[in-house]
Amino acid sequence: MLKTLNQKVSIVLLVLSAGYLYLTFNLKEYPYVPIDSDFIPKVLGYILIALSILLYFDRSSESDKEKAKRQVSKEDVLALVGVGALIILYIVLFEWLGFLLTTALFVFSCSWALGYRRILSLVLVSVLFPSVLYYLFNYLLQIRLPEGILPF
């Protein structure tokens, strides 16, 4: 049944996307908004399920050269674990601190953890990126993002 790496990965992705999609149906609904905050997460969940199914039936085989590329160094594994921990912290703090603060902290800390050390650029990107996204979602798309402890 699970002969290739693509089939094994597709099953893992399918289970993760099903769990993710289940959780999107538990998101809080906001009245008086044309597109609610759960719209995009649900669309992404369905897309991930469709891509997982396509990956399962992918017939391409892996060469020895491609297998050699899968060797991951210890530093890369530590970086992946660190980013995973930051993502979990982001999810935990998202509702409480709100989109703007949580995303700014996540972008800054994740970039710092991955080795980017230009402080001015980090601060500018960490503030501007979530601010632009917040404006786009809240005012142009009218999709409410969690406000958190900020009054807007």
TrEMBL record:
Keyword line: Membrane, Transmembrane, Transmembrane helix
Family matches, as InterPro entries: DUF1468 (IPR009936)
Domain DUF1468: 9-146
TM helices/strands, residue ranges: 9-27, 39-57, 77-99, 119-137
Organism listed in the record: Pontibacillus halophilus JSM 076056 = DSM 19796
Annotated protein name in UniProt: DUF1468 domain-containing protein
